[in-house]
Structures are given as structure tokens and as C-alpha cells.
Amino acid sequence: MPNTVPFNCYLKMEQLPPDVKERNGIKFKDVKNIRLDCTAQNGTYTGFDLLVIGGMLKFYVLPTTSGGVVKCSDSRRAGYRLQGGVSKLGAINVSSIFYLNLETKGGVVFGYGEPNDKPLLESKDKAGNFNQNPMIPYKIDGYLFITDPTYSVFEILIVPDGRLLLLELCRSLANGQFDEALNKMRATAKPIFDY
């Protein structure tokens, strides 16, 4: 693996505290699913632009289930998926979340995923046709995830054209190979919405 940094965009997603949710009119109270709001970003990624609503970028961490949105055998299905906030096309399955099975200091969990590459969404337009998947232009990109078991903070690193390299890149990330670049991106990330 080359020593170049493979990611060009960093997103810091967080579970917002109750007072911030109330101040911003966020009424999400689902105890089974987790809402994450983007509180800082470094770099750009147009793949998520459709999911920005009212200036806010939000995702939900949802369990995958047999017969659900993620259509594959149980042995290939990730335990969780990242769903984009409701857009004009409805909710969008952004990525499965595959975790490395590693013991790490401080409970840090590393994972990876890729954009949904199905041409059509589960949602339908007014004529009853399935909507086109807006993630198709980004289907060869990849995502690296850093979180903790409670998902209080969920970081996303965008790897352009990295879909086929994700497992190796995730292991390198977990081993600290990209710590310097990641810490620079964290330190210079800026809010995209004033909560």
C-alpha cells in the first residue's frame, strides 16, 4: 500500500445533546436507532449533497435485518447500515457498516463501507416508478469509519475510487498509518451548520 493518504474528506458526526436538539427543533426520539448530525467537515464530497436538508447533514445508524433494505445472504450482510436523512427521494441507504474485529485502546472501533450501488431505490416517484439512486455516480468511492461502541462520535473518511481497497485501508487506519493526516483534518474541520 502506498504511503499517500487515501482520503480527501473528513466528516465528524455526533449524537446531539437534548438541549441542542430542542433548540434546533429536532424531534428524533427513536430509542432503537441512532441519529448522527454532521458537526464538522474538512474537504468536500458532493455524494452527500442531496442529503443536506435545511443546512443539516444527518445520518441514521440502523441494524440490518433479513428481508430488509440490504438484500444479501445473512453471511454477507453487515450488522448495521448508514441511512441518509430523508431527502426529496425518501430515506437513502448510504452504506453498510462493516467493522474490523479488533480490540483497541479506548474502545475505538474501525469500519468501512461503500455507497449503495443499486441503480434504483426502494422509494417510488408520483407515477409509481422506482426512483433512480443518486449515489450511482459515487459507487466506486469508499468510506472509512471511526467510532466508539455507543456512537457518540462517528467519523467518516471519504476515499475517492477506493471501493476495492477498503479492507486494507481500514486495517492501515486502525494500525495508525494515517494518524498524522487524520489529526490534521480533525484539527482544521469546520462546522457546516450552526447548531
Q: Mind telling me the C-alpha Rg?
A: 16 Å
Distance between the termini: 39 Å
Oligomer: single chain
Care to count the β-strands? 11
> Poorly predicted ranges (pLDDT <50, ≥5 residues)?
66-75
Contiguous helical run count: 3
Biggest sheet details: 8 strands, antiparallel, barrel
Topology order in helix (H) and strand (E) letters = EHEEEEEEEEEEHH
Shape: globular
Order of strands across the biggest sheet?
Answer: 1-2-4-5-6-7-10-11
**Sheet/helix structural class:** mainly beta
**Mean pLDDT score:** 87
Report the β-strand fraction as a percent range: 35-45%
Give helix % range.
10-25%
3D structure, described in words:
The chain is mainly beta and 195 residues long. The protein is 13% helix and 35% strand. It is built from three helices and eleven strands. The chain has an eight-stranded antiparallel barrel. A two-stranded antiparallel ribbon has the order 8-9.
Layout: helices, strands, pairs:
Layout: E1 9-14, H1 18-23, E2 34-42, E3 52-53, E4 56-63, E5 80-87, E6 90-99, E7 109-113, E8 120-124, E9 130-132, E10 142-147, E11 153-159, H2 166-174, H3 179-188
Antiparallel strand pairs: 1-2, 1-11, 2-4, 3-4, 4-5, 5-6, 6-7, 7-10, 8-9, 10-11
